[in-house]
Fold this protein.
Amino acid sequence: MNTNKKKPKNICESFTPELTRQFIIDIDIALKKIDINPVKELLEKYHIENFQDSIDFIEALDYCLNGWKKEHMGSKIYGEVTTSDSKCIACEHGKGMVVYEFEYIHSLAPEPMNRVVYGRDFGILFDIRNEILFEIRVCNAFLDKGEMERLRIV
């Protein structure tokens, strides 16, 4: 039996418009967990974990999801993870993206520092062409909510 399946060379070869729409829903759910493991599992589920773009994405995302944690300080999410639309202001200038925002505390820090609520955000840029995902990237240069609101008024 000849199973001569051509191995995809790019992420886009793994997606259809329907799979792209479902992936966007699934990655949103995974990212809101602020945990790298569900994201890695999702890339495996869609069979895109070994592409260089996916490897780069996980590497950049790891800092966003883990860089705020302090060992032995009881770091934990405080409240819900929220999202908002934004625009890239650097390498993909003007391209739409989704910003994930969350607050956290270090519950085991000495008083009163254990009551301080910190905030963090990161952007996810989806390169979708003709309804097919070509690339997913972390973006750290984007407009904040206030800037987006001012742009809507103009």
Q: What stands out?
A: The first strand starts at residue 75 and ends at 87. Strands lie at 75-87, 96-106, 118-129, 132-139.
